[in-house]
Recover the amino acids of this structure.
């Protein structure tokens, strides 16, 4: 695996942790990112509220998705930083996915296609 | 004792304007909380308004404005509005009752600051009923209903003591009982919708003309003076707070509108007694001390979440004292320290201190009582998903 | 016939407050539709107001308030506002005309509930002109312009029959003609912006003081009484509906504000005839009855989309009857059932039923005609992309 | 592991969620998006003028699942979200190389 191979990190985290995660990533020199407000549910099936004996399930809880395209050798650092900053230890802390990136082109600069073989 | 159609017209409209302040508070607060609690924050204001509306006609008005019992509380002669009719002195008695009612309602709405994003709705209804009965009604009686404070000569034109000190210091007590929001101090809880807060602030500024000028209870020169000093103090407060926040960084729009509310809160007790030049000073000082009160609150890690204490409590306290400093006999018939009558300042100090102590202590007891019996606070999970879903079963953009 | 400056000031402001109710309806409805139809819903309210404004000054005012022809309709003497001048009894005739105009504008705006998210704008304008001319104007004439209902002694203080029964049952007829929204009943159509609905509700509650208290047409004790009972009924309705929805699940804020509107509607015809305690009962019953009507409508699969029928229609019907039950001579000079005058209740029932049948029948026929000639409804694809884009070429944050 | 990304009509979300949950496919992330497909949006006739409405509101569902579950998801989404008209959406499948938990130190790779 070449060191320069690109990966996309998709991290789903608690919205209130975004600030801290951003800071932690910046400290790890990982700066560029795209952030989307999403709603999600995990394997633990949302939050179940007891309400006068009736149960009410709140699934699709607001979350934040961070996407970053980084070099393969930065992946462990990114995961470490996100985990350290976003963890509360309770259900709903989120997940991090790593996807291969085939190609990445800069919109501003011509001839800046990065492709790995 | 004849009715004047001009005065009646004016107070009818002022009552409607003050009514609009209650949803104004809801919008103001709603924009300051996180998205998941916006509906809850807005709805709490309406709930406060509805609860107090009923409490007031059942017996609240009578407790505040019924025949004096020992200077402390009114008798129940006007319970269920008995004897409150179409006639009156200048304006119908029924209208005076309604005008006082919208004041009582907005006061309870202001207190929701303290419990933002974590109050159980059912407990708030019980607390609101208790609070209006045991805190607001006595204070209104002391000052306006012929109680001990008015007998002493303590002045409060439109509610610096009755509305703002009581709501602000009550909110502080309530916040101490209910405790901090989960995560307070650990991560930022940024206001999610500033334009909504600005719209709420606009409705408050607009409604405040009814609040202060209407407190003249007639469409006359005092009403005009009250309107002018009200607007002046609001503007001065807005500029002062904005300037202070500019020095520390950027002049935030929330700071600007908070400063306006601080100026409005401070001029409220004084509006019928001071001139426009004094209003500038009252507004500027209010903007600055409320700003520093807010910073102090944050530094002490107190989660009186939306700053009813810093703005209404501290601003109302300053305004009550400022009345004793700046009052001019030519306007409201009373002179203050500057025009050579220090005694009024002493009276204002007594009134403010007594109201502050009473409001804080009794609110604390009411809150504790509700907390121990019903629980003030929602569960941790309910708080995490937000009160919109957990208390109302609703959400934005669902 | 001198002009009273106080009364004139009061009705001028009340007219402006009622005008604000029309965009209030737009915001109230706009928050309840899906995002893609929000602009359309608010725009419809403005368009209704503009269309009725022109209709009213050209012919509508004369049809409603011109010299009586057979108890059914007014003559054309005031067409183009001929003879409507600056003089008048207490208030200028022109002001009376304007005050009535804002009622007519609001009524058409309420009707848009029946066609939400699927009406073709051009057809709505045509329908609106026809409806105001053939339904609203006659009904206003019957009750207020010297028509048969007034001769019979039917009471409608501020428009329970003229405004609410007509728009509520009219909306039902309109909804039956235009048909359900695509996908109605198959997937949920959740309100997308509840805070906007709450803001609209706040403006409605505020404006309603102008609507009801202003209907005294003077700043006097009756106006104050109407003001007070209006607020009480709103608060009682809010609490009742919220309580009822609490039993079935969560106390929704939408239910709370809907209950307030239900209470406001029901007190409208009665505001000048009942006392505050009766207002509590009227409001509570309105909240429960309209909530039940809404559940009934949903169960029947009727897509009267935003519940003008359940809230305005049924609330207005209840209010018209309640006037006959709770009226006391001490307030408005007429006794009702409880005060020993069952005849009044019978008159109220006759008036309400005739108005209901007339509004439903004529609206149904008008809607059918417009539908046959121009088509009331947008195409399926236009409905799918939403009326904001399809009818206005605009969209939120696009 | 694969990521399944389905772009569907917003009004079909509840149905799709429910059907997926019945098969034990629970975890997902939902985003409100706007999009246009190959059929170039919806064309409205407006007084002789044509208005083309592209970027129509859609919902994007993302689920990360074992390879074996991909076909089931596609089947369910198709069954529930299909109306047969243009604009029903698309489903994309991505390779996921690694999944890391935030709450725990768990790491899953191929």
């Amino acid at each position: 695996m070449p060191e320069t191979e690109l990966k996309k990190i998709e991290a789903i985290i608690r919205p209130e942790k975004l600030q801290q995660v951003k800071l932690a990533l910046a400290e790890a020199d990982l700066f560029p990112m795209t952030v989307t407000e999403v709603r999600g549910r995990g394997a633990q099936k949302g939050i179940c509220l007891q309400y006068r004996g009736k149960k009410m399930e709140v699934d699709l809880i607001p979350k934040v998705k961070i996407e970053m395209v980084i070099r393969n050798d930065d992946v462990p650092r990114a995961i470490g930083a996100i985990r350290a900053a976003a963890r509360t230890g309770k259900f709903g802390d989120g997940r991090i996915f790593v996807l291969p990136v085939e190609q990445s082109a800069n919109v501003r600069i011509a001839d800046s296609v990065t492709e790995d073989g | 004792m004849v009715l004047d159609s001009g005065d009646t017209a004016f107070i009818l409209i002022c009552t409607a304007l003050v009514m609009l302040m209650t949803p104004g508070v809801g919008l103001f607060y709603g924009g300051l909380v996180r998205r998941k609690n916006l509906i809850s924050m807005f709805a709490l204001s309406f709930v406060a308004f509805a609860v107090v509306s009923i409490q007031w006609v059942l017996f609240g008005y009578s407790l505040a404005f019924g025949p004096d019992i020992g200077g402390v509380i009114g008798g129940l002669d006007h319970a269920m509005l008995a004897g409150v009719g179409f006639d009156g002195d200048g304006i119908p008695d029924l209208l005076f009752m309604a005008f006082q009612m919208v004041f009582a309602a907005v006061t309870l709405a202001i207190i929701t600051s303290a419990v933002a994003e974590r109050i159980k709705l059912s407990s708030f209804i019980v607390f609101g009923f208790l609070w209006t009965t045991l805190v607001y009604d006595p204070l209104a009686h002391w000052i306006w209903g012929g109680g001990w404070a008015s007998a002493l000569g303590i002045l409060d034109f439109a509610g610096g003591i009755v509305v703002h000190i009581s709501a602000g210091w009550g909110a502080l007590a309530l916040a101490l009982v209910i405790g901090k929001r989960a995560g307070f101090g650990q991560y930022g809880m940024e206001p999610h919708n500033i334009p909504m807060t600005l719209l709420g602030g606009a409705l408050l500024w607009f409604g405040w003309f009814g609040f202060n000028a209407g407190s003249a209870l007639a469409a006359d020169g005092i009403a005009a003076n009250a309107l002018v000093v009200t607007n002046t103090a609001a503007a001065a407060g807005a500029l002062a707070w904005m300037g202070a926040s500019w020095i520390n960084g950027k002049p935030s729009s929330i700071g600007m509108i908070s400063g306006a509310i601080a100026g409005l809160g401070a001029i409220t007790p004084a509006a019928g007694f001071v001139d426009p030049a004094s209003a500038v000073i009252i507004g500027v000082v209010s903007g600055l001390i409320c700003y520093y009160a807010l910073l102090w609150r944050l530094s002490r890690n107190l989660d009186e979440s939306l700053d009813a204490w810093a703005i209404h409590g501290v601003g109302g306290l300053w305004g009550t004292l400022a009345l004793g400093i700046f009052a001019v006999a030519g306007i409201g018939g009373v002179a203050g320290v500057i025009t050579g009558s220090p005694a009024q300042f002493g009276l204002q100090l007594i009134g403010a201190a007594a109201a502050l102590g009473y409001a804080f202590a009794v609110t604390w007891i009411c809150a504790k009582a509700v907390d121990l019996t019903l629980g003030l606070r929602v569960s941790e999970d309910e708080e995490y998903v937000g009160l919109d879903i957990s208390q109302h079963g609703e959400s934005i953009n669902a | 016939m001198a002009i009273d400056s106080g009364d004139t000031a009061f009705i001028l402001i009340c007219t402006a407050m009622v005008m604000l109710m029309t965009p209030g309806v737009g915001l109230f409805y706009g928050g309840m539709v899906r995002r893609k139809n929000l602009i359309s819903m608010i725009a419809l309210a403005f368009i209704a107001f503009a269309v009725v404004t022109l209709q009213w000054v050209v012919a509508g005012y004369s049809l409603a308030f011109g010299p009586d022809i057979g108890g059914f309709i007014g003559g054309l003497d005031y067409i183009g506002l001929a003879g409507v001048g600056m003089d008048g009894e207490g208030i200028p005739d022109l002001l009376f005309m304007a005050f009535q105009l804002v009622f007519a504008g609001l009524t058409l705006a309420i009707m848009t509930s029946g066609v939400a998210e699927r009406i073709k704008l051009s057809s709505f304008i045509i329908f609106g002109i026809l409806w105001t001319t053939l339904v609203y104007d006659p009904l206003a004439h019957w009750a207020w312009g010297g028509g048969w209902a007034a001769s019979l002694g039917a009471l409608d203080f501020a428009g329970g029959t003229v405004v609410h029964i007509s728009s509520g049952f009219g909306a039902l007829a309109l909804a039956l003609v235009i048909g359900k929204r695509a996908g109605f009943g198959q997937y949920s159509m959740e309100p997308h912006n509840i805070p906007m609905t709450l803001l609209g509700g706040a403006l409605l509650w505020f404006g309603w003081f102008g609507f009801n208290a202003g209907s005294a047409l003077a700043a006097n004790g009756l106006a104050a009484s109407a003001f007070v009972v209006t607020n009480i009924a709103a608060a009682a309705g809010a609490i009742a509906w919220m309580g009822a929805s609490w039993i079935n699940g969560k106390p929704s804020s939408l239910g709370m504000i809907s209950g307030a509107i239900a209470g406001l509607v029901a007190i409208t015809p009665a505001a000048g005839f009942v006392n505050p305690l009766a207002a509590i009962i009227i409001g509570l019953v309105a909240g429960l009855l309209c909530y039940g009507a809404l559940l009934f409508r949903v169960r029947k699969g009727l897509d009267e989309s935003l519940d003008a029928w359940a809230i305005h229609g049924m609330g207005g019907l209840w209010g018209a009857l309640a006037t006959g039950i709770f009226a006391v001579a001490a307030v408005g000079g007429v006794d009702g059932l409880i005060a020993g005058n069952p005849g009044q209740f019978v008159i109220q029932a006759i008036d309400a039923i005739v108005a209901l049948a007339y509004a439903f029948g004529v609206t149904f026929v008008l809607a059918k005609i417009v539908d046959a000639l121009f088509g009331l409804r947008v195409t399926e694809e236009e409905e799918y992309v939403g009326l904001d884009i399809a009818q206005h070429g605009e969209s939120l944050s696009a | 592991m694969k990521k399944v990304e389905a772009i569907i009509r917003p009004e079909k979300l509840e149905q799709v969620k429910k059907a997926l949950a019945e098969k034990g496919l629970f975890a997902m992330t939902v985003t409100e998006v706007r999009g246009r497909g190959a059929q170039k949006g919806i064309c409205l006739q407006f007084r002789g003028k044509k208005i083309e409405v592209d970027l129509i509101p859609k919902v994007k569902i993302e689920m990360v699942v074992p390879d074996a579950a991909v076909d089931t998801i596609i089947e369910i989404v198709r069954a529930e979200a299909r109306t047969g008209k243009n604009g029903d959406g698309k489903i994309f499948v991505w390779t996921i190389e690694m999944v890391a938990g935030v709450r725990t130190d768990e790491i899953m790779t191929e």
In short: The interface with chain A takes residues 35-36, 183, 187-189, 379, 381-382, 384-385, 389-390, 393 of chain B (CB under 8 Å).
